[in-house]
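User: Hi! I have a protein structure encoded as tokens and I'd like to know what sequence might fold into it. I'm fairly new to this, so please keep things simple.
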């Protein structure tokens, strides 16, 4: 299958029903997206499909054919630059395991809503769990990123 990953045409040999996450991590060595629950519940595996945040553990790789797949390794939008800078300023990450998923969800939020309220942030980020409890810093960093856009 031919996929578009981070603006590159990539041939993937995985079976069509293999989760996209495995094609990214095992075949392409793009290991920023993490495996957490495998059931679409934690958000650790979040990547973008055509700019929308999706759970790559719960999506067959065949569903990504003909669409733009963006991972934490390749995202380079104004929102992503603002989010990454804000993450560093606020020092959001603790263990870091959930953070690429958090960043990808935050970027998708800011692309669709450049000045989100606390409620907007809570709604958009509710599917991204953090066992370390970095939620207050995530919210602060999204506001900071928003102000710099
Ligand atoms: S690993 Fe995909 S949502 Fe948890
Ligand atoms: S920073 Fe550790 S799980 Fe979120």
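Assistant: Happy to help. Inverse folding works backwards from shape to sequence: for each of the 149 positions I chose a residue that suits the local structure. Here it is:
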């Amino acid at each position: 299958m031919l996929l578009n990953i981070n603006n590159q045409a990539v041939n993937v040999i995985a079976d069509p029903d293999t989760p996209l996450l495995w094609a990214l991590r095992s075949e392409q060595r793009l290991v920023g997206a993490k495996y957490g629950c495998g059931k679409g519940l934690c958000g650790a595996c979040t990547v973008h499909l055509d700019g929308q945040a999706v759970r790559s553990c719960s999506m067959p790789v065949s569903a990504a054919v003909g669409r733009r797949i963006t991972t934490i390794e390749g995202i380079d939008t104004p929102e992503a630059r603002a989010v990454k800078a804000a993450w560093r300023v606020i020092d959001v990450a603790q263990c870091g395991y959930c953070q690429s998923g958090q960043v990808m969800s935050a970027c998708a939020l800011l692309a669709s809503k450049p000045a989100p309220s606390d409620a907007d942030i809570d709604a958009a980020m509710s599917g991204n769990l953090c066992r370390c409890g970095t939620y207050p810093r995530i919210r602060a960093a999204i506001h900071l990123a928003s102000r710099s856009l």
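A useful reference point when you look it over: The pocket of FE2/S2 (inorganic) cluster (ligand 1) is lined by residues 35-38, 40-45, 55, 57 (CB under 6 Å). Feel free to ask if any position seems puzzling.
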